[in-house]
Design a protein that fits this description.
By secondary structure, the protein is an alpha/beta fold. The chain folds into two domains: 147 residues, 3-Layer(aba) Sandwich (Rossmann fold); 49 residues, no CATH class. 42% of the residues lie in helices and 9% in strands. It contains ten helices and five strands. The chain has a five-stranded parallel beta sheet with strand order 3-2-1-4-5, with helices on both faces.
């Protein structure tokens, strides 16, 4: 059966790809177009140094195309997480079907210290047979970080900036902390809310979150240690 290695552009999935890759496997990166620039650089470096090809697929028009075509009159939120559905799951499925793959072994980079993500994982496509190689090998975040610290290249951003840079699943506190260092990241999310209607959070906009951050109205958090507020099914 065809093996598909889910590659998010993060250090955990990159390590999984290095350990597991065999000729004929598909290393698949579904690009939301909202990743931090350092993530794209890391993927390029991974291909360059490891000589492992990464297949990159994107929803037509990226994030903005999704809002226009699938938006239900508002931006995604905790109740309607249609971004993951369309940008990740359906985009990957459409690509695989386009090359004749109707079922596969799906390798996912959740670590041994991420049992809640593993237990709550929902394949959403039953012909994906999910496997968690890092969990099976008992590889933890510490193991991952130690491995990459020895390499010639690395992902040069805090873990909290992985996946979509200001994803609402990171929570308001994390987003404010990120915006203290990278206020410019808010601009595209503010534009989304103004153009598509609604807000990513129930009672506050990204424009307000940016204002809190730049005006120092909130406690500082260490970006190296802060974690997302909500569980995410995007693969790290």
């Amino acid at each position: 059966m065809q093996r598909v290695i889910n590659f998010s552009g993060g250090k955990s999935s990159a390590l999984m790809a290095l350990i597991e890759y065999k000729p004929g496997d598909i290393v698949l990166f579904t690009d939301t177009t909202r990743e931090h620039p350092a993530t794209y650089k890391f993927i390029n470096d991974f291909e360059k140094y490891e000589k492992i090809p990464v297949t990159r697929v994107t929803y037509p028009g990226g994030w903005e195309g999704m809002l226009q075509n699938e938006g239900y009159g508002t931006v995604p939120n905790l109740v309607m997480r249609y971004c993951t559905k369309h940008l990740k799951i359906k985009t990957a499925r459409k690509y695989l079907l386009s090359i004749g793959i109707t079922e596969c072994e799906n390798l996912i980079g959740f670590r041994h210290d991420e049992q809640s993500r593993i237990l709550n994982y929902d394949a959403r496509w039953k012909k994906y047979k999910a496997f968690f190689p890092l969990d099976q090998r008992k590889i933890t975040k510490e193991n991952v970080n130690n491995f990459w610290s020895q390499k010639k290249y690395n992902l040069e951003i805090p873990h909290i900036l992985g996946n979509c840079d200001l994803c609402f699943l990171k929570g308001q506190n994390a987003i404010i902390s990120i915006l203290k260092s990278f206020p410019e990241l808010a601009d595209k999310w503010i534009k989304d809310e103004k153009e598509a209607g609604g807000t990513y959070f129930k009672n506050i906009s990204y424009e307000q979150l940016k204002n809190i951050a730049v005006n120092n109205l909130f406690k500082d958090y260490d970006l190296k240690n802060i974690t997302p507020a909500f569980n995410c099914s995007c693969h790290s």
